[in-house]
Amino acid sequence: MSDADTEGIDDAGVSSWFASHVANVQPPLSYELIAGGHSNLTYKVEDQTQNVYVLRRPPLGHVLATAHDMAREHRVVSAVGLTDVPVPATLGVCEDVDVNGAPFYVMTYVDGEVLHSDVESAEVSAEDRMSLSREVVEVLAELHAVEPDDIGLGDLAKREEYLGRQLKRWTRQWEQSKTRELETMEEVQQLLERKMPVQIGSTIVHGDYRLGNMLVRSGRILAVLDWELCTLGDPLADVGYLLNNWVDPDEAPAGSSAPTLVGGFATREQLLQWYENASGRDVSGVSYYRAFSYWRLAAIVEGVLNRYLKGAMGKQEDVDLAVFKEQVEMLSASALETLTG
């Protein structure tokens, strides 16, 4: 495939935009779809002098109206870049769909490792696994300590009634993108509404905070990625989601493989204690948030399955769609078990 034929990239339009908006860029540009993105498409872009950038754009084809807002994601990453939370530096956003058929934004390229699974984390030393565990918690607590108004994100979303808003949003997403009926999803939704705790405080919520969305090296987090689900609300939602993805070695992951399966990382109990110490928050009711996160992720994965079936995720022939279907069923079952166990 030639660079000009890279799916999701209009080389002429993108090259022209880069020339006008990115300093010292030297066209022609080459593009590589970075593997691992099941939502927004992420490309590595390289010019003729080995300058490397990252371009993010929505999936190909029809998407939900509220999802994949490039200007919003660019705004969030730019704002968080003013804090001590590590993120790539943003270089610009293009909202003119005539340039590339959809909005996109561009960031600096951060050269680190993404721990998608236990295969990658097996290469991490035992010492680095523990230091990374601690840093994952400390960076999350740092994010939750930021006052949104201080970095221009005070109007990003409503601050209160986070869980109620999220339940409505993901119930709607499930209804719009489900590929079949699944009674467990409806049962969990009703239990989540009935058992909903009172929100204490409001912070920036990443929405997808896990090792697989970080660039790491030598036990340090170089950058936290994938801010498309970021909002304002209940910080314990991030904690519950992180714990779900922090799978013990003797445990079956509720979804796809987990980096912590390899062992040598901190336990969930250690993570919770570190977070409680760093944030000063009561984490005793975290089980509800874990159930909510399982259920929400089931709705997200169903949306990914729906987009694959409609051909909106590009030509990725090695994808086994049955895996996504099974993952949704496992996640919804885990949500039910967490709520009723």
Write the layout of secondary structure elements.
Blueprint: H1 11-21, E1 30-33, E2 41-46, E3 52-57, H2 70-80, E4 90-94, H3 97-100, E5 104-108, H4 118-121, H5 126-145, H6 162-177, H7 183-194, E6 203-205, E7 214-217, E8 220-224, E9 231-233, H8 236-245, H9 268-279, H10 286-309, H11 321-340
Antiparallel strand pairs: 1-2, 2-3, 3-5, 4-5, 6-9, 7-8
Helix pairs in contact: 5-9, 6-10, 7-10, 7-11, 8-10, 10-11
The number of distinct helices, counting runs of at least 4 residues, comes to: 11
Structural class of the helices, strands and pairings?
alpha+beta
Runs in which pLDDT lies below 50 for 5 or more consecutive residues are none
The assigned CATH architecture of the largest domain is Alpha-Beta Complex
Number of strands: 9
Gross geometry: globular
| Proportion of residues in β-strands | 5-15%
CATH class designation of the largest domain: Alpha Beta
CATH topology of the largest domain: Aminoglycoside 3'-phosphotransferase, Chain: A, domain 2
From the N-terminal CA to the C-terminal CA, the straight-line distance is 51 Å
What is the succession of H and E elements?
Answer: HEEEHEHEHHHHEEEEHHHH
What is the C-alpha radius of gyration, as a whole number of Å?
A: 20 Å
Fourth-tier CATH superfamily name of the largest domain: Aminoglycoside phosphotransferase (APH), C-terminal lobe
Task: Give an overview in words.
This protein is α+β, with helices and mostly antiparallel strands and about 350 residues long. It has two domains: about 5-110, Phosphorylase Kinase, domain 1, CATH 3.30.200.20; about 120-340, Aminoglycoside phosphotransferase (APH), C-terminal lobe (Aminoglycoside 3'-phosphotransferase, Chain: A, domain 2), CATH 3.90.1200.10. About 40% of the residues lie in helices and about 10% in strands. It contains eleven helices and nine strands. It has helices at about 10-20, 70-80, 95-100, 120, 125-145, 160-175, 185-195, 235-245, 270-280, 285-310, 320-340, and strands spanning about 30-35, 40-45, 50-55, 90-95, 105-110, 205, 215, 220-225, 230-235. The strands form three sheets. Strands 1-2-3-5-4 form a five-stranded antiparallel β-sheet. The protein has a two-stranded antiparallel ribbon with strand order 6-9. It has a two-stranded antiparallel sheet with strand order 7-8. α7 packs antiparallel against α10 (about 285-310). The protein is globular, with a radius of gyration of 20 Å. It starts with 10 loop residues before the first helix and ends with a helix. The model has no long low-confidence stretch (mean pLDDT about 90).
